[in-house]
Give the backbone structure.
Amino acid sequence: MKNYKILLQYDGTRYKGWQVQKSTDMTIQGKLQAVLEKMSGCPVEVHGSGRTDAGVHALAQVANFKIDVSMTETEILDYMNAYLPEDIFVYEIAEVPMRFHSRLNAVSKTYRYRICNAKRANVFERKYVEVITEPLDVEKMREAAAWLIGEHDFRAFCGKRNQKKSTVRTITEILIEDNRTKENYKPVNKEKRNEEVVISISGNGFLQNMVRIIVGTLVEAGLGKREPESIKEILEKKDRSNAGYTISPRGLALAEVKYD
């Protein structure tokens, strides 16, 4: 029996999230386990570094599984990619110590959210960006984001209202990149990329829908619907109704997972 760590990317558009569900076979974990079970002839449990929600993508998801097969790493990798759907791709595999666990050993994760701040998105990018047509004040968004840095109780930013476990998390960085040009709101053409605002959030862990609620709240600040200082009160009151809306999953991707 050996423990393998894999790095994979996936387009989450048509999936119901990472975690296996009894009601559907359209989950990332389910697809991976089905292929590995076919390969080994035995049930295999795949552990992911994070349980991405339905519709959320991954640029660099990390997972691990234990399996007993007489195949090389390259043969396992080739087998998986031969039988996985085209919107799931495993691009790296390595044997790791038996005690390695992709979720429990992770020390930091970075999620990236892409916003197309224009009248419409490029047709080839439309599944991976959220279109917001009204101009966003990025400086206001950055002011609001600054209140979230550090260790806080993020209960107000948790989509699971009856969360019983600790909702304390640490956000180490929120980077908001403004890739818009001065000629914003021109029609998208084949030479022109999306007019994007990209929000990258790094932390030691995230609650259900936490990133999407944070982004929704920052968008409200950028649209002038709330003051940046309101974040302080949201954190203090710990009430979901005080935070912003849960933005669409289409613009979100797990971008990086770090280990010691």
Q: What stands out?
A: The chain has two domains: 2-96, 108-259. The two ends are 24 Å apart (CA to CA). The chain has a mean pLDDT of 94. The longest helix spans residues 28-40.
